[in-house]
C-alpha cells in the first residue's frame, strides 16, 4: 500500500514536472530528483511486499507470478515516462498503450481473487479496484500521458491493499500462510462412559 502511495506521489510530481518543465530551471531539476526518489522508494516497498507475499502465502502461483511481472512492467513504464531514455517505439499518448496498460493491470488485480475464492467481500473489493484501473484509460481521451493511467493504478492498488488488510484484520477473509497452526476439532462422546 505504501509503495503504491509513493507511485501516486510520483505521478503528481510528473504532472507538475510536465506543466512547468524548463531545461535550465532549478525547480525542474528538484522535481525530477523528487520523482526518482518516489519512484525508487515505491519500487523498493513494492518489491519488499511482493517478497513477503511470495514467501508467506501458500500456493496462488498465478497471482504471485502476475504481480511480480506487473511490478517489472510498471518499472519499465515509469522509467520511460520520465524521459530519461527516449525510444521511438514508446508513445506516451498512445491509445493502444493506455488500453494495454489498463487491461494488463486489471487482469493482475483479478488474480487476487485467489486469496479467498468464495469470499463475496473480496470479490466486491477486486471488482471495485479493477473498475478504478479501467478509469485510467480515460486519461488518454483527455489527452494526458500514460502517467495518468499509472496514477490511477496506484490509487486502485493502494485501495486494494488497504481493503485486503481490513478484511484480514476483521477476520472476514482467511488466507492460508506458511506457519499457520492447523485447526484441530476435538469431539467428545459420552456414549461409552457407562
In short, what is this structure?
It contains seven helices and no strands.
Q: How are the SSEs placed, and which strands pair?
A:
Layout: H1 2-20, H2 26-56, H3 61-81, H4 95-110, H5 120-135, H6 138-141, H7 147-169
> Termini separation (Å)?
60 Å
In terms of per-residue confidence, which ranges show pLDDT below 50 for 5 or more consecutive residues?
none
Report the order of strands and helices: HHHHHHH
Whole-number mean pLDDT: 82
Written description of the protein model:
The protein has helices at 2-20, 26-56, 61-81, 95-110, 120-135, 138-141, 147-169. It starts with a helix and ends in a 25-residue tail after the last helix. 67% of the residues lie in helices and 0% in strands. The protein has 194 residues and is mainly alpha-helical. The mean pLDDT is 82.
Amino acid at each position: 500500500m505504501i509503495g503504491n502511495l509513493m507511485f501516486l506521489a510520483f505521478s503528481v510530481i510528473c504532472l507538475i514536472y510536465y506543466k512547468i518543465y524548463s531545461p535550465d530551471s532549478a525547480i525542474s531539476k528538484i522535481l525530477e530528483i523528487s520523482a526518482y526518489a518516489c519512484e525508487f522508494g515505491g519500487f523498493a516497498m513494492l518489491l519488499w511486499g511482493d517478497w513477503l507475499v511470495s514467501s508467506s502465502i501458500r500456493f496462488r502461483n498465478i497471482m504471485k507470478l502476475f504481480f511480480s511481472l506487473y511490478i517489472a512492467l510498471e518499472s519499465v513504464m515509469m522509467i520511460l515516462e520520465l524521459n530519461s531514455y527516449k525510444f521511438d517505439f514508446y508513445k506516451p499518448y498512445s491509445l493502444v498503450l493506455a488500453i494495454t496498460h489498463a487491461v494488463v493491470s486489471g487482469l493482475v488485480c483479478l488474480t487476487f481473487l485467489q486469496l479467498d475464492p468464495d469470499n463475496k467481500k473480496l470479490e466486491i473489493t477486486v471488482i471495485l479496484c479493477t473498475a478504478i484501473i479501467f478509469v485510467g484509460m480515460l486519461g488518454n481521451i483527455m489527452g494526458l500521458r500514460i502517467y495518468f493511467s499509472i496514477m490511477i493504478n496506484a490509487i486502485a492498488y493502494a485501495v486494494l491493499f488497504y481493503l485486503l488488510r481490513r478484511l484480514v484484520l476483521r477476520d472476514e477473509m482467511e488466507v492460508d500462510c506458511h506457519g499457520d497452526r492447523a485447526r484441530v476439532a476435538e469431539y467428545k462422546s459420552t456414549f461409552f462412559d457407562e
